[in-house]
């Protein structure tokens, strides 16, 4: 078993800001990995919760406490505090399947030109019940392909440290879509490997169900505008057209996400949050929101009838 101070092949970074009960389950999924040559840093990002119990979970896990600066800065701090050749990121409310890391490390070693490996996933609820497959699971062929939908699950990624550092790490100045920004910088350095097995689980709960879809839409739009400017400088009209189309599609997609959040809040009788999310959906994707709401009103079968079909 590897302990801190020794060289580990893989470093695991978990940012945690008042993570609640889910962090313990996330750490259990780390300790249960078939691949054992890892170190793990939990970056306590200014939590009001007492996370000192983390230090007793496993000798390969340690905690760093710092003032709250957001998940990007926390991930950068975790990377700086570790030394593995590969880096995996895990959000404090997500879960890994036991064979996740072993499969990804094997794939990366078999493809030396690759910079990153990501996998399929499942969406789960608060209690761990599987709700659906990860909606963005797909093989990414190249930069232009990723630009069409630059969304990968953070907890599904293992990246080469040298590539992560060359790309510049996480952008702490972005308030949203910082992961999309990083993936787009990384794919310029090499290929991505995709394992379509659902090797991790993304948990949907009240805290992540209430994030601001408008902020996410604007964050991705900010990232895409930067790449649009690069395409314009290169005179790449095909890519420029693709990016503009992606910006429009992204806004519509986040509108649908806001509507799903509104549905969740209505089902749980959080009417104020329902109202805000419904207005967000209307702002981002008015046609979809009005049609879906109309279908719901016609059915009159209760809030659970609100769906995307």
> From the structure provided, what is the oligomeric state, counting identical versus distinct chains?
single chain
Q: Which structural class matches the secondary elements?
A: alpha/beta
- The overall pLDDT average reads 90
Helices, by number, come to 10
Low-confidence stretches: none
> What's the helix-strand series?
EHEEHEEHEEHEHHEHHHH
Give the amount of beta strand, in percent. 15-25%
CATH class of the largest domain: Alpha Beta
Number of folding domains? 2
CATH architecture heading of the largest domain: Alpha-Beta Complex
**Rg, Å, rounded:** 20 Å
CATH superfamily of the largest domain: Spore Coat Polysaccharide Biosynthesis Protein SpsA, Chain A
Number of strands: 9
CATH names the topology of the largest domain as Spore Coat Polysaccharide Biosynthesis Protein SpsA, Chain A
Largest sheet: 9 strands, mixed
Distance between the termini: 50 Å
Helical residues, percent: 40-55%
Summary, kept brief:
By secondary structure, this protein is of the alpha/beta class. The chain has helices at residues 22-31, 71-80, 100-110, 143-148, 161-167, 178-186, 213-234, 237-267, 271-284, 286-299, and strands spanning 10-16, 38-45, 61-66, 86-89, 95-96, 114-124, 130-133, 157-160, 191-203.
Describe the 3D structure.
The protein has about 300 residues and is an alpha/beta fold. It folds into 2 domains: about 10-205, Alpha-Beta Complex (Spore Coat Polysaccharide Biosynthesis Protein SpsA, Chain A), CATH 3.90.550.10; about 210-305, no CATH class. About 45% of the residues lie in helices and about 20% in strands. It is built from 10 helices and 9 strands. Strands 1, 2, 3, 4, 5, 6, 7, 8 and 9 form a 9-stranded mixed beta sheet that branches. The longest helix is centred in the C-terminal third of the chain and has 31 residues, at about 235-265. The chain starts with 9 loop residues before the first strand and ends in a 10-residue tail after the last helix.
């Amino acid at each position: 078993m590897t302990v801190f101070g020794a060289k580990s092949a893989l470093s695991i970074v978990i940012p945690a800001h008042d993570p609640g009960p889910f962090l313990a389950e996330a750490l259990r999924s780390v300790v249960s990995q078939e691949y054992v040559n890892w170190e793990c840093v939990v970056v306590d990002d200014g939590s009001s919760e007492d996370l000192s119990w983390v230090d007793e979970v496993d000798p390969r896990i340690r905690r760093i406490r710092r003032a709250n600066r957001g998940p990007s800065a926390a991930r950068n701090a975790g990377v700086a505090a570790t030394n593995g050749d590969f880096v995996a990121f895990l959000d404090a409310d997500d879960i890994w399947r036991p064979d996740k890391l072993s499969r990804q490390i094997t794939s990366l070693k078999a493809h030396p030109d690759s910079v990153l490996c990501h996998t399929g996933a499942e969406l789960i609820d608060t209690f761990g019940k599987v709700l659906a497959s990860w909606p963005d699971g797909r093989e990414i062929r190249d930069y232009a392909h990723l630009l069409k939908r630059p969304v990968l699950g953070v907890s599904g990624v293992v990246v080469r440290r040298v590539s992560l550092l060359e790309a510049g790490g996480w952008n702490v100045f972005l308030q949203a879509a910082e992961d999309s920004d990083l993936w787009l910088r990384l794919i310029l350095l090499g290929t991505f490997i995709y394992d379509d097995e659902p090797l991790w689980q993304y948990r949907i709960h009240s805290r992540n169900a209430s994030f601001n879809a408008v902020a996410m839409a604007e964050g991705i739009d900010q990232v895409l505008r930067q790449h649009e400017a690069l395409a314009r400088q290169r005179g790449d009209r095909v890519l420029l057209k693709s990016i503009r189309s992606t910006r429009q599609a992204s806004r519509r997609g986040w509108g649908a996400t806001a509507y799903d959040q509104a549905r969740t809040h209505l089902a749980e009788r959080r009417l104020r949050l329902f109202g805000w999310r419904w207005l967000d959906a209307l702002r981002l994707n008015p046609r979809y929101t009005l049609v879906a709401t109309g279908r719901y009103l016609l059915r009159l079968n209760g809030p659970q009838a609100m769906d995307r079909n």
